[in-house]
Amino acid sequence: MTGRFTGKVVLVTGGGSGIGRATARAFAREGATVVVAGTTEERLAETVKLVEEDGGRASYVVADVTREEDVARMVDTAVDRHGGLHVAHNNAGILGPVGPLADLDAAEWRRVLEVNVTGVFLSMKHEIRHMRANGGGAIVNTASNIGAHGRRELLAAYTAAKAAVSALTRAAARDHVRDGVRVNAVSPGPVEAPMSALPGESDEERNARIAPLVPAGRVGRVAEVAAAVLFLASPEAGFTVGHDLVIDGGVTA
What we know:
Layout: E1 9-13, H1 18-29, E2 33-38, H2 41-53, E3 57-62, H3 68-82, E4 87-90, H4 106-133, E5 137-142, H5 146-149, H6 156-176, E6 181-188, H7 203-210, H8 222-233, E7 244-247
Parallel strand pairs: 1-2, 1-4, 2-3, 4-5, 5-6, 6-7
Helix pairs in contact: 1-2, 1-8, 3-4, 4-6
């Protein structure tokens, strides 16, 4: 532990599992007070418990990032409970339906974009409003390597949504860097998280299926994504603005 985030308040959306949970725990280990947000209270409570078992400080807020009133309340709660908001990791997302574009229901398409894109937009909107009025901050959004290469078939909505997150990250970064708010993104490839598995597939089955497709020969670890998020949010990345860091074992390369 280096204490890079001692005294900082960090908000993590989608903090109930996978990358969000790993990132919350990593920030707390580095001294931050963490607020995790999501729609499933039981999962959020489990993340808080794990953070506290690690010796860290955390709380949770039940919020749906597609609802602006929820997002405003989420940010206000973090500030009111802990005295500020210095870092945000906008990680909430869904995979959506798997199938060819021509068979994709329009309502399913809209739902994927609402969670993965509108949710990031609304989160940044309210996070930035607070940060620019209070000395700045850092935001890291979760995009995906699929948004850059599009080589995984049957995921049209998810691919489009994650490409949009990368573009939205760049736009927000340019709009607000002179407000003292740095905005960047991470683009994970296949990692050991629930979203990477097929329905009914065990972790071992998922790893065996995916590993041969990755130049590095293995599935990524959520802790590796968390480490990248912490770097981008830290003072060490103070001159890194509007960047989308790909973490995919060489798939995009």
